[in-house]
Design brief:
This protein has 212 residues and is of the alpha+beta class. It contains 8 helices and 10 strands. Strands 3, 4, 5, 6, 7, 8, 9 and 10 form an 8-stranded mixed sheet that branches. A two-stranded antiparallel sheet has the order 1-2. A hairpin with a 5-residue loop joins strand 1 and strand 2. The longest helix is centred in the first third of the chain and has 14 residues. The chain is globular and about 55 Å long. The relative contact order is 0.19.
Length: 212
């Protein structure tokens, strides 16, 4: 997602590909489906609260109006048991894993795995407040972690060599690698998860033409 000078947004990436696929599914039922896209909060938890059926009772204390703000979110959310209880999750269309990315033009030692970084107590960048941050820290407790607010912040820190690797969702990292030759996604993969939609109501809403 890129914000334009006039304040509008241009959307790209595999999530948009999923929306295009949904349009094809709808056309097979003689339904024309269009989407009016809006930026979601940058953190998974905040975004999830806008579609979860109990978001007005969570710690963020969203109002019921905020609860119903979006019909659904297309995202590569990790389908934890807690999230499955709070929102209806669609069948998976993609699979992803936790992986790492490195900066090609670094001046220091080249690290390609979290094991290597852990052994040397090297800094690893992680987005704060994410589910997989806890997974990574539990699997590699001896590494030294640097928290950053979002993916752009983590990649900037990686390029400043404040960390030797950034650990994130592989699909997100592959998308950035394709547009930035200074980044290289390593072969490290663990904690495979499915990519899905977060939905308040079922895909059958298409039949009532309520989705716009």
């Amino acid at each position: 997602m890129e914000e334009q000078p006039d304040g509008s947004f241009v959307y790209g990436g595999f999530q948009v590909d999923l929306l295009d696929r949904m349009k094809i599914f709808a056309s097979q039922m003689n339904i024309t489906l269009n989407f009016q896209l809006s930026p979601s909060p940058p953190m998974y938890g905040d975004a999830f609260d806008l579609v979860a059926n109990d978001c007005n009772t969570t710690a963020v204390n969203n109002t019921l109006e905020d609860c119903n703000k979006f019909d659904f979110i297309v995202a590569n959310f990790y389908a934890t048991p807690e999230r499955s209880l709070r929102a209806q999750l669609s069948p998976p269309w993609l699979r992803s894993t936790i992986s790492t990315v490195k900066y090609v033009d670094k001046t220091g030692r080249d690290y390609t795995t979290l094991t290597q970084a852990s052994e040397d107590k090297a800094n690893v960048c992680l987005k704060e407040g994410t589910f997989y941050a806890g997974v990574v820290k539990a699997k590699f407790p001896d590494a030294t972690y640097v928290s950053c607010p979002d993916l752009d912040g983590c990649l900037d820190a990686l390029k400043r060599e404040e960390c030797v690797l950034h650990c994130d969702d592989e699909l997100q990292l592959r998308f950035r690698e394709a547009t930035d030759p200074s980044l290289e996604v390593t072969r490290e993969q663990f904690n495979t998860q499915v990519s899905l939609q977060l939905m308040m109501e079922t895909f059958m809403k298409l039949h009532s033409n309520k989705l716009g």
